[in-house]
Amino acid sequence: MAAGGGGGDELKLLGLWASPYVLRAKFALSFKGLSYENVEEDLHNKSELLLSSNPVHKKVPVLIHNGKPICESQIIVEYVDEAFPDAGVSLLPSDPYDRAVARFWAAYINDKFMPAWQKASLGLTEEEKAEAVKQMLAAIENLETAFKELSRGKPFFGGDTAGYLDVTLGTVVGWARAGEVLFGRKLFDATRSPLLAAWMERFVALDAVKAVLPDNAELIEYGKMRMAHYAKLAAALAAANKKRNTHTHKHRHIVSIGGTGEMAGAGRDELKLLGMWASPYVSRAKLALQLKGVSYEYIEEDLGNKSDLFLRSNPVHKTVPVLIHNGNPICESSIIVQYIDESFPSSAASLLPADPYDRTVARFWAAYIDDKLAAPWRMVYRVKTEEERDELMKQTLAAVDVLEGGLKECSKGKGCFFGGDSVGYVDVVLGGLVSWVHASDKLSGAKLFDAAKAPLLAAWLGRFGELDAAKAVLQDVDKVVEYTKKFQPRDSGTAADRQAVN
User: Fold this and answer.
1) pLDDT tens track for 108-153
2) What is the side-by-side order of every strand in the sheet holding 328-331?
3) What domains lie within the chain, and their CATH numbers?
4) Is the pTM of this model over 0.85?
């Protein structure tokens, strides 16, 4: 079926009708006025098309544009907006800083609000649900404040019209209405969060939303089925815990139950980077600034005694890095890298590819590095038991294996860098970890990017480390080794450092 935005475009959306993340993709397509073929997936018997289109995560949604797959709902939204700039309304703001702010709050919705919201209803224990409700309410309070600041008194996060953040948060509106029946509570209560409550009523009244919003009665029935499923899981977990507690506690067991599916370039520019020397995420920002040839003032933060400037600049997460550009703070390392690239387009080569699909692929692998590689790997030297450490290393090495294929894909057979012949966005995201990779090799005696198992990544590691930009900003490996030893469980004095570095 042809897309409304371009004559020869063919769009297919692989999804599950009840998924809030699939709904996010549908909202984006609807706001852009694009027609597409909707392919309903049975997630218990996934189609070959889904498995071949998203071999890494094997999840919905997947958008296929002229045979090319785009995965992950947030990435799909950006792709739809960039690939069809003349169709419908623009979702992302045109100003680079406004885009950075929108991406920050989109990440907050995905990382803080959505998990708490889902667990508050489908947690396996009452204690888990109660803690999730507490986290959810805190997130809603922050989003209420964000709406007040971003909307500037207008109806939507995007101002007069719905935009990127409206689509991102709008993913919950179907289940929010069903939840009033299923759980007897409003997600956005008019007393506690009046701005969001009013926003939701305006959002669901939009024609583009009504066109794709699932039927409420059907969602309620589906929700009852899911609740019954989770009740069985909770009973099984309780029985397993009871049985385990009857035996001597010689070993610690971990039970895991899976869910479903960041010289001023222009004369007036003033840049400050708030960071901490050991943070690989701060290194990302430094690498981006170095590669773009942009000068800045670096301010080392004491994370045990955070400065007022730091706390004012990132009041939500209170983590480094923070880039301050002409008084405007940008937070989260991957968002900062994109912001630098967009704000200084004439400074050196672009980090993100020009083609919308290539940008989408780069964003996918950047997210994979953070979520699947860095997340388990950063915990390896912090856990208390060998069993935990072995499991985390297993996850990390599995991610390295997948990332080897990602380098082959992104470099288009050239094998030099993820950006091809030159360093790009994914190289910077992974490059921030380089000193830590070498430190890990020294600490463990085994190579994370082993030339026998991951030859492309092993060669990439050597090439990247020889770049002038890498030599200028990456940490001394021996200092990182000593710093890492502080993470051992016997030393509890590094909690501030561990919790304040993103």
Assistant:
1) 999 999 999 999 988 878 899 999 999 999 999 999 999 999 999 9
2) 297-300, 271-275, 322-325, 328-331
3) 11-83 (3.40.30.10), 96-210 (1.20.1050.10), 271-343 (3.40.30.10), 356-499 (1.20.1050.10)
4) yes
